[in-house]
Design brief:
heterodimer; A: 594 residues; mainly alpha; 2% strand; B: 101 residues; 2 helices; extended; disordered N terminus
Chain lengths: 594, 101
């Protein structure tokens, strides 16, 4: 039994970065994920760590170790290690703190053995990642962070409802493979849980938070965010929902949706964000296929994906760091002065495209092989089409428009050395696992009998990719970047909420305005006008009454005016001046007293 | 939001970054790159002559020569055209969402 959960090391590291607000703090941030990685390596399978907090619920299992948790544990800590080297330049240690806490919570999700622990860490991830997003401190980041949190609270509430219903239905809190049920049997709890998880997996129509929030975050936060939230969702699907057929189709839709939107996008970090949805689609589909080969494929792909996606975000981050710009329409020609960033970023782009000799080739093909093994022709076809599309939108489009294309005459400095070093580690892993995937295959949940490097695989994959590249350059005029954004499902809540606000503003505030005009201004005004010189009005009334018998109407009118003025000024003879208010008072008393 | 901080805290745009006249691409280089690309396409097809391909789903007509090349070409063309078509409905000015703020 382990003495403590592995994420405790990272929590401690996070606190220490706040204590040591100098380079020592940065060093701690780099070393603690590495220490956690080693600690996970030493943990024996079947180990567990339990804690009794809630009486009557049984104990919480904070640590449960098996092959699947270990794969995700390794890659989560490894990515944090590289990400923190990349963040060496960061002086605001609160950024490091939130990043490490976020990573620790993601590890908490992976190691959770019961659904209460899992749920708590899941929600903590949403909260801590919001801080990562708003730490950029731009108006856009504040807005995106707010929307991000609201969407995740929505997903979290679905999860909570699902967890409670599941407990009521089965009486078990174990986080294990859940019995498959129709999505309409919501009282079983698991369908609601699945919906909540798909919000985090960024499956459409709930996925637009991702391209909204991640590209608004800081340079370093983007690198870390790209690795964890969606991948904990993938882990959860692999743990609890393997073989749920609906996931196959959700995954297939995600792969194509990500490509189409990435093709439309202008902002380099939003291209990468849509590309995450595309890649997670492969893993979700694999979880749906649910065979041993598919689960191996999804785990391997998650492992490699985190590495090359981090690398891509790092290179985009380096450009953003140096130029403060992220729109493709503003970028171009950067290879001249940022050759290393270009080279390393391109390795990431080739890896995501599953070019032979890169890690994408040895991991993604496992998933496609799994679809073909199960004779799922349409799934296989969609995944093949998506593989070609990845090369189009991420493999070529990202490096082409950022580093080549039209030179804009900008000659920034090369990225800082710490950034290049971190990118170097990731690029090395992309190629190493592409050439020699055996160490990765060895840690997968099930034994691997797959041979990535056969002549047949190499030829078919090369044909697919080279002809995709040909299409890119033939249609280049159509792909020319415009300074635009594309509407996604966040339109419904961004425009919808604004419309709701405006409608409420119009309805309630016009009622308010009308009431103010009619009651406060007009009605009260009427009363005040007639009451403020009541004795004058009364005296004038009496004069007018007497004037009925007068022949000279003009004289009566003059006397009436003068009386009214005298009463207002209090210059009436004393007796009259006292009597008139008295009468007025008596009248008022009578009027209010009755 | 009372405090509108427009410069992100995490970027470091060099204030005196060197700027030069944008340089165009040499047409010769572009021509060479096109030749290489077409050459690679041809090479990948030629390679199929020497390798025994194990096609998946032969019963769905995936077994013909150059199937993967055709699929890569057609799939990408369709996706680009689809994206281009959707762009008519989906593209907006970058300040589209700021108008209501």
């Amino acid at each position: 039994m382990p003495d403590f959960p592995p994420n405790l090391i990272i929590f401690a590291g996070a606190l220490l970065t706040l204590v040591f607000r100098n380079k020592l703090g940065n060093l701690i941030a780099v070393l603690t994920p590495a220490a956690a990685c080693y600690y996970i390596y030493t943990l024996s399978p079947e180990a567990s760590f339990t804690l009794s907090i809630f009486q009557g619920f049984g104990s919480l299992e904070l640590v449960r170790i098996d092959e699947l948790t270990k794969v995700f544990g390794y890659i989560f800590t490894l990515n944090a290690f590289a990400g923190m080297i990349y963040s060496w330049y960061v002086k605001q240690h609160s950024h490091l703190f939130w990043a490490l806490v976020y990573v620790a919570c993601a590890l908490g999700v992976v190691f959770a053995g019961d659904i209460i622990t899992w749920y708590i860490y899941w929600e903590l991830m949403a909260v801590t990642s919001t801080f990562l997003i708003i730490s950029r401190r731009t108006e856009q980041a504040y807005g995106a962070g707010q929307r991000y949190l609201l969407v995740h609270v929505f997903g979290g509430l679905l999860l909570l409802a699902g967890v409670l219903l599941h407990y009521k239905h089965t009486g078990s809190l174990a986080f294990e493979s859940f019995a498959q049920t129709s999505l309409l049997n919501w009282e079983h709890g698991t369908p609601l849980m699945l919906l909540g998880i798909l919000v985090n997996a960024a499956a459409p129509p709930f996925g637009s938070w991702l391209p909204d929030a991640y590209p608004s975050s800081t340079v370093t936060a983007g690198v870390l965010l790209s690795g964890y939230t969606t991948k904990t969702a993938v882990y959860t699907l692999l743990r609890g929902f393997t073989g749920w057929e609906v996931l196959i189709w959700v995954g297939c839709i995600m792969t194509i949706y990500g490509i189409i939107y990435a093709l439309l996008e202008n902002d380099m970090r939003r291209i990468l964000a849509y590309s995450i949805i595309n890649q997670v689609g492969f893993m979700v589909a694999a979880a749906g296929i649910g065979t041993q080969l598919a689960i191996n494929g999804a785990s391997a792909h998650a492992f490699c994906h985190i590495i090359y996606k981090s690398l891509l975000w790092m290179s985009a981050g380096a450009v953003l760091y140096r130029l403060g710009k992220s729109k493709c329409t503003d970028l171009g020609g950067l290879y001249k002065t940022m050759p290393w960033t270009m080279l390393l970023g391109t390795i990431g782009a080739l890896a995501i495209s599953a070019v032979p000799l890169t890690s994408g080739f040895t991991s993604k093909t496992l998933i496609i092989e799994a679809a073909s093994h199960e004779h799922l022709y349409w799934v296989w076809l969609v995944l093949e089409i998506a593989s070609a599309g990845v090369f189009l939108h991420a493999g070529i489009k990202f490096p082409y428009f950022v580093f080549f294309a039209k030179d804009k005459g900008m000659r920034p400095k090369e990225a800082p050395k710490s950034m290049l070093f971190a990118m170097g580690i990731m690029a090395f892993l992309c190629i190493f696992l592409g050439i020699y995937p055996d160490p990765l295959y060895a840690i997968l949940p099930y034994p691997v009998e797959y041979q990535a490097y056969t002549a047949s695989h190499l030829v078919t994959q090369s044909q697919l990719l080279i002809f995709s590249a040909l299409v890119f350059f033939i249609f280049l005029p159509l792909l020319k970047r415009t300074d635009t954004i594309s509407l996604d499902t966040d339109w419904f809540y961004r425009k919808g909420c604004a419309a709701f606000y405006n409608a409420m503003d119009l309805a309630l505030n016009s009622m308010n305005k009308l009431a103010y005009q009619r009651i406060v201004v007009e009605f009260v005004g009427l009363i005040t006008r007639n009451v403020h010189n009541i004795q004058g009005s009364f005296a004038a009334c009496m004069v007018r009454f007497g004037g009925v018998f007068s022949r000279n109407a003009n004289a009566t009118k003059l006397i009436e005016e003068n009386t009214r003025k005298d009463a207002a000024l209090g210059s009436l003879p004393v007796g009259l001046g006292v009597m008139l208010p008295l009468i007025a008072l008596i009248l008022m008393l009578l009027a209010y007293g009755v | 939001m009372d405090k509108k901080i427009q410069t992100p805290v995490d970027t470091n745009p060099c204030p005196n970054m060197k700027r030069v006249e944008p340089e165009g691409w040499n047409p010769k280089t572009i021509r060479t790159l096109w030749i290489i690309l077409w050459g690679l396409c041809g090479l990948s097809l030629v390679a199929e002559l020497f390798v025994h391909i194990h096609p998946h789903f032969e019963d769905h007509g995936t077994g013909f020569f150059g199937y993967n090349a055709v699929m890569g070409f057609v799939a990408c063309t369709v996706m680009i055209l689809a994206a281009k078509g959707l762009a008519i409905f989906l593209k907006r000015k970058p300040d589209y969402y700021d108008k209501d703020a």
